């Protein structure tokens, strides 16, 4: 039998399309922020990396719920643009911009000091800022760039703010991790740039996402009983806004593929919002939530408590937390 003419038959195309559609519709029904009517009036939230993508969508939702939302962004220009967009779309004037570069521990400390001075309480902290595909490089503080940006910065920030958050209890901290953590490994030397020269650019990213989960779980154990809960989430594979810059045809194709396989930033924001605002996640701590808002176990490595404790101590040492005393 001739196979080639058979494979060329349009029936195959329809068959594949049908199959993809079925797979798409099979996607588990997730918690939906549009059906959640929790108000955050009188609450204060910080979202790092809020100028674009998931961070902006999370901030937008929190602002709609009438929270006072602090956008923590690296660039004043891009942060200001997001701030204006969120204010005009939600009508919430209590949206503020504070500069924060999570790759710099000095910037994290300065940011935290401003927050501790300005804010009477802090109810939600979303550690969303992160970088992927950064080339191997060292920061001025002697830390590796991806690990500093994605793990050490959020680690230090959360530690500096937990005092205020426990005074504001119940309060929630969310770390935006990724399913990529499954391919990550823990080598404490990575924090200072050891053994990552010449690796693929997604390797440090994957490792830092593993650290996010371990750090969240260790923090949850340390804050047990304080009323501060700590969770980590997978946002799913998200189509970034970068495609906005392409022509209509490319965008169309991307959106078509995206409909089947990827998530929009709005959909990517759902797992973070579930942990930060939902009634279902009240009291949920030391847990990992997947992109369908389901409680799942992270990789075996991520559940290793002794290694998590070692990572915590090495991180304290790397950011100078043990010796740091606020002015
Ligand atoms: C990083 O994780 C992704 C997703 O699991 C995987 O496809 C990729 O191969 C990983 N990269 C490395 C260097 O392990």
From TrEMBL:
InterPro entries found in the cross-reference section: NAD(P)-bd_dom_sf, SDR_fam
Signal peptide from the UniProt entry: 1-30
GO terms for MF: oxidoreductase activity
Oxidoreductase found in the keyword field: yes
Domain of life from the UniProt record: Eukaryota
Keywords: Oxidoreductase, Signal
SUPFAM superfamilies in alphabetical order: NAD(P)-binding Rossmann-fold domains (SSF51735)
Family: Belongs to the short-chain dehydrogenases/reductases (SDR) family.
Annotated protein name in UniProt: Retinol dehydrogenase 11
Organism field: Xenopus laevis (African clawed frog)
